[in-house]
Amino acid sequence: MNLKKILSVAALCAVSTSSYAANWSSTQLHVNNGEHKNPFSLTKSNTTVVSLQHASGYDYGDNFFFIDYSNDDRQDGYQDKDFYGEWYSTFSLSKISGSDFSYGAITDVGLTAGFNAAGDSKVLKYLPGVKLSWQAPGFSFLSTLFTAYIDDSEGVARGGAPTETNSWMIDVAWGYPFTIGSQKFNVTGHVEYIAERENEFGEDVKAWILAQPIITWDLGHAMSIKENTLLLGLEWQYWHNKLGTDTTESVPQLHVEWTF
Asked: Any signal peptide, and if so, which residues (predicted)?
């Protein structure tokens, strides 16, 4: 699988679409560092993850993608200079139809197409589904994503991870800015649940819960440079049944975020 080609096309599509009729856009560089656990050997390694992340809204919906580059201090075949990426494009039913799809606290309903792709493991998943956008007091955004989790991986015979049966996913994402005195903070993140499935050897792949909340301090604002540009904080990664194994990980990570 040509992972770099897939991610490059996704990135170009997202950027070109948002730049054509952009209502808003944000491109960020994230750096996280913490002690990640190999779910197979159970060893811990100091791991740095550098992420390019982009979000944008245009006349008919929104785009979101990220590309992670992970490297640790242990040569064990896991997170050794590896790439992983996700891309989601959502079409707003309210915007494309001209009708109001809001109901109660739901502000909009969207149709989403996405994929997840991993480098060394040669994993590729397709995620078509529905996105609900919510209005909640104090939140800059709150959304719920319901998708299928369709496997199109290369499998063990071609040097990758085992292929899996199809499954489904629920993901909740949020942003909540707040202030303490003159200082500005933000709590962002997501929680996903991916249901159980079975690999090509007939083995169970357990359902997992992955939570990645981030709390940041607006360092740029504090230094009177520019707000919402340079953020410093902590990301907590909690992963129950990491990668479908019996391993549970709970790791705090130093988080630095720069918005272009």
From this structure: 1-21
The answer to whether 16 and 54 are in contact (CB under 8 A) is no
Could you tell me which of 127, 136, 205 has the C-alpha nearest to residue 164?
205
Task: Give 137: exposed, middle or buried? Use CB within 10 Å, 0-12, 13-18, 19+.
Answer: exposed
- Nearest CA among 241, 246, 155 for reference residue 200: 155
Task: Answer whether 226's CB lies under 8 Å from 245's CB.
Answer: no
Q: Which residues contact 40 (CB under 8 A, 6 or more apart)?
A: 78, 245, 247
CA-based torsion, 107, 11, 86, 42: positive or negative = negative
What does the block give as tokens for 208?
């997992």
**Phi, psi (rounded to 5 degrees) for 195:** -70, 160
> Per this entry, what is the length of the chain?
260
- Tell me the two tokens of residue 74: 């242990």
In 3D, which of 126, 122, 49, 29 has the Cα closest to residue 86? 126
Which residues sit opposite 214 in a β-bridge? 188, 235
Inter-CA distances, 138 with 88, 108, 130, Å: 25, 18, 24
Provide the H-helix boundaries in 181-231. 219-222
Q: Do 126 and 114 meet the contact criterion of CB atoms below 8 Å apart?
A: yes
This prediction's pTM: 0.91
Q: Angle at the Cα of 29 (from 25 to 35), degrees rounded to 5? A: 140
CA distance readout (Å), 11 to 7, 55, 79, 163, 241: 6, 11, 22, 25, 30
pLDDT tens per residue across span 83-122 = 999 999 999 999 999 999 999 999 999 999 999 999 999 9
User: What's the whole-number average pLDDT of the chain?
Assistant: 92
CB atoms near residue 16 (< 10 Å): 10
